[in-house]
Write a structure and sequence with these properties.
3 domains; alpha+beta; single chain
């Protein structure tokens, strides 16, 4: 009779073999994605993540300030850094272009999702039937398409590959990567609760932090899953709290409290249809009451994993189903985006149901169950493969209008800020270092007036005959030298500028091809630094995009030929030099987003630097004559506190691992 250790090794070997099979099956389905540079989805924003990855790769040790998107921002505001960092590391190791590196990471994560879900289910439930069923269901089904009509793709879509479609077509890149890591966070947290041990605690914190550094939805999923786990096991509050606090302190330099507050402030305003209404005040406590009822009713269940699956599913299904089934009922910000978590939860349900059927079926019934599931799996694998082959279509980027626009601007307007409207903005910084006026992840863009100005230029809402005039005003105010406008017949997808002919005959045409035009924005200087009178500083924030009066004196000063010109040159992404001549009563305006951390020095002495009401930098060098200002972006006290706490947590984790061995298994 084999020993316990031998049986354990056999089970682990079997689990590893199943994991390799699941990975290989997913890799067969999406195999083109591993080597794709660009695919036929330029309407998605995945180019943003590839661009940030390129920035990390080229500036690995000097990336405090990110100048490419939204008139500039602290790098942590561009997006959670882990996915771009993984793409950057891939590029450094392989030499591949940034877009291909991103697709390789995404393909790998897509294949890992069912594998990590399998390991969570297998280790917790100790049942191959349950774990394999859940892993295969996550690979070969899309429950959200069955449950939600709006998500179906084509006539056969209720059995289609929603997870892959969201990844490739809609650019849900960070969300999918976080989803692949989420089961590992649950797995190590479960181990920390039932087994204890320094390794389990440290790995649980590391995985929870990694998920949060990839995507905000994943971070919220970690929190909801931890609550469901504690209630399912009816213990574990202490390790969960310790793990959660340490995980946050570890990642806090990239997710400081000020950024969390900003995300909290802007999350509800990300796209109008994501906003909550009065029904949410009733729905949220009702959801919690239903969750409590499920917890109470499931207490007699012997299996804690089944309880976890039910409680986790109650959260993850209620959020998107409430949105799609109940006329866009929004329980949490962007409720519709939790469709992928719903799929994971339903697949765990399916695994639990399969185990129940297996345990209660006679031998003949088990054979029938295997035959049915096998036939369905083969059918779905073929369906998913055919779908992926059509979806993941590599394209020659040089034949696209997006590339033509990017290439022309990069070669003819080097270093100049441009408003690249529409989908070319997503791939723009894969090829160019030029700063853009928009392009980034809008909910975390730190300059509110930049968002207002972009909205005004795009929509022209209520501007009437002054639409072109108002748009040019904002373009000048934020230092744009040109604007790309796609026409109605353009191959660009979005056509975001509503009145696309409004600049005709008003702005000079720099480039025109097919129905795409790049207009010049007349500026006195190509520099983003300007000498202006102190009284021209914008001292009142405009109420909306048509409230131009607070900034009229400022824009007029930009064109005042009596004022000296200022030359701005960037030494690094975080350091610049400004050279000019000034008189008393004059200040420097730099058309870059002001955030705490900017520092200005003249001849080695600090001079006042602040933000105006457009969110731009104002420097008071108090010069009389020739003036050279060194401008740099550094770490603020909040950042230093976060770095110190992160270092302390890291040292504590290393010390605990070195001091303690693995704890014995104390599971009931």
């Amino acid at each position: 009779m084999p020993s316990l250790r031998t049986r354990s090794r056999t089970r682990i070997s079997q689990a590893v073999a199943i994991s390799l099979f699941l990975f290989a099956l997913n890799a067969w389905i999406c195999r083109e994605l591993f080597a794709a540079d660009f695919v036929n989805n330029l309407l998605s924003n995945e180019g943003i993540f590839a661009s940030i990855g390129r920035f990390f790769r080229e500036h690995p040790f000097d990336h405090r300030w990110f100048p490419w998107f939204n008139a500039g921002m602290a790098t942590e505001y561009a997006y959670q850094p882990l996915l771009p960092a993984m793409a950057a590391v891939t590029g450094a190791l392989t030499g591949w272009p940034a877009s291909r590196c991103l697709h390789f990471v995404l393909a790998f994560a897509y294949c890992c999702g069912p594998v990590t879900l399998f390991w969570l289910a297998f280790e917790w439930s100790e049942c191959f039937v349950l774990a394999v069923s859940a892993g295969l269901a996550f690979t070969l089904t899309s429950p959200a398409e069955i449950l939600i009509k709006e998500l179906r793709i084509g006539s056969d879509a209720h059995w289609g590959a929603l997870r892959l479609n969201n990844l490739v077509f809609y650019g849900e890149a960070p969300h999918n990567v976080s989803l692949a890591m989420l089961p590992l966070a649950y797995l190590f947290l479960y181990r920390a609760i039932v087994r204890g041990g320094a390794w389990n605690m440290v790995l649980a914190g590391a995985m929870a932090g990694a998920v949060a550094l990839t995507n905000a939805f994943g971070g919220f999923g970690v929190a909801l899953g931890a609550i469901a786990m504690v209630l399912a096991l009816e213990r574990g509050v202490r390790p969960v709290l310790i793990t959660g606090v340490c995980a946050y302190l570890w990642i806090s330099p990239w997710l400081p409290p000020s950024l969390i507050l900003w995300i909290r402030r802007t999350a509800w305003s990300a796209e109008g249809f994501f906003q909550a209404d009065n029904r949410s005040h009733i729905a949220i406590p009702l959801t919690l009451a239903v969750f409590g009822l499920i917890w109470f009713v499931t207490r007699p269940l012997k299996g804690s994993f089944e309880r976890f699956a039910l409680l986790f599913g109650a959260f993850m299904c209620t959020i998107p189903l409430g949105y799609f089934w109940l006329n866009r009922l929004t329980i949490v910000p962007q409720s519709s985006r939790y469709q992928l978590e719903l799929e994971m939860a339903v697949c765990l349900f399916f695994g639990c149901a399969t185990r129940w059927a297996w345990n209660h079926a006679p031998t003949a019934g088990r054979a029938v169950l295997i035959a049915i599931l096998l036939a369905f799996a083969v059918r779905q694998a073929i369906t998913f493969r055919r779908f992926a082959k059509v979806l993941v279509r590599p394209i020659d980027i040089t034949k696209t209008v997006e590339y033509k626009v990017v290439n022309w601007i990069d070669h003819n307007l080097p270093g100049q800020r441009t408003m690249v409207s529409g989908d070319p903005e997503y791939i723009f910084n894969l090829y160019s270092d030029n700063p853009q006026f928009s392009a980034g992840h809008e909910p975390t863009a730190p300059n509110w007036m930049q968002r207002v100005a972009v909205y005004t230029i795009y929509t022209g809402a209520n501007a009437g005959d002054h639409d072109a005039e108002d748009s040019i005003f904002w373009l000048k105010a934020f230092g744009n030298q040109a604007i790309y406008v796609p026409g109605s017949a353009s191959r660009e997808h979005y056509h975001p500028i509503v009145r696309m002919r409004k600049f005709e005959g008003i702005l000079p045409v720099l480039w025109h091809d097919e129905d795409d035009t790049i207009y010049a924005v007349p500026q006195r200087s190509r520099s983003m630094a300007h000498v202006i009178p102190r009284e021209a500083v914008v001292s009142r924030q405009p109420i909306h995009g048509l409230d131009l009066d607070p900034a009229r004196a400022y824009v007029a000063a930009l064109d005042d030929t009596s004022l000296p010109l200022a030359e701005l040159s960037w030494r690094t992404p975080t350091e610049a030099a400004i050279r000019t001549a000034m008189k008393p009563g004059q200040v420097l305006s730099v058309q870059e987003t002001w955030m705490p951390g900017w520092r200005a020095r003249v001849a080695g002495r600090d001079v006042p630097v602040r933000g105006d009401k457009l969110g731009l930098i104002v420097i008071e060098p108090n010069c009389d004559g020739a003036c050279e200002v060194d401008l740099s972006f550094g770490v603020i006290p909040e950042g230093w506190v976060c770095r110190i706490l992160s270092l302390l947590v890291t040292c504590l984790a290393i010390w605990s691992l070195a001091r303690r061995g693995p704890a014995p298994d104390v599971r009931n």
